[in-house]
Amino acid sequence: MKFIVIGIDDNQEQNFCREVTDCIANAKVFSGGKRHYEIVKKYLPTEHIWVEIKVPLSQVFEAYKAYENIVVFASGDPLFNGFGNTILREVPEAEVKVYPFFNSLQLLAHRMLLPYQDMHTVTLTGRPWHKFDEA
């Protein structure tokens, strides 16, 4: 199984590089959250298949088994507490290529002129709020 994971932002207009545009044009199966689909659907081939990423994730990965090649859209940098890590954990034998975008921490750091390598981070995605307090 092969995954191409493309990081995007929330803008309705995406500026994909040529390599990513080619990946999208040559693919049939795509995946991401509902919000991602609303952003990227205009870039997808007419005859595409969309696998929505939603809980329980076990059902998403079960659906993925029907396909050999899947293009996944994820927010920001898919390997920064993102879905790219979930793919690597759930399908360790998969071939994975990642095209990251800036993550929210990077964008904040750039705006505030802060060195983000010195920041302590915690993700709340799929975790209870008390983990934020513990951090």
What do these coordinates show?
- This protein has 135 residues and is α/β, with parallel strands linked by helices.
- The chain has one domain: 3-Layer(aba) Sandwich (Cobalt-precorrin-4 Transmethylase, domain 1), CATH 3.40.1010.10.
- It is built from 6 helices and 5 strands; from the N terminus they run βαβαβαβαβαα.
- It has helices at residues 18-25, 34-40, 57-64, 83-90, 104-112, 130-134; strands at residues 2-8, 29-32, 49-52, 69-75, 95-99.
- Strands 3-2-4-1-5 form a 5-stranded parallel beta sheet, sandwiched between helices.
- Helix 2 (34-40) links the parallel strand 2 and strand 3 (49-52).
- The longest helix has 9 residues, at 104-112.
- It starts with a strand and ends with a helix.
- The model has no long low-confidence stretch (mean pLDDT 92).
Topology:
Elements: E1 2-8, H1 18-25, E2 29-32, H2 34-40, E3 49-52, H3 57-64, E4 69-75, H4 83-90, E5 95-99, H5 104-112, H6 130-134
Parallel strand pairs: 1-4, 1-5, 2-3, 2-4
Major sheet details: 5 strands, parallel
Average per-residue pLDDT, rounded, comes to: 92
Biggest sheet: strands side by side, in what order? Answer: 3-2-4-1-5
Q: Please identify the top-level CATH class.
A: Alpha Beta
Return the domain count: 1
Estimate the strand proportion: 15-25%
- CATH topology (level 3) name: Cobalt-precorrin-4 Transmethylase, domain 1
> What's the CATH superfamily, by name?
Tetrapyrrole methylase, N-terminal domain
Helix content: 25-40%
- SSE order, as H and E? EHEHEHEHEHH
General shape: globular
List low-pLDDT spans.
none
**Termini separation (Å)?**
36 Å
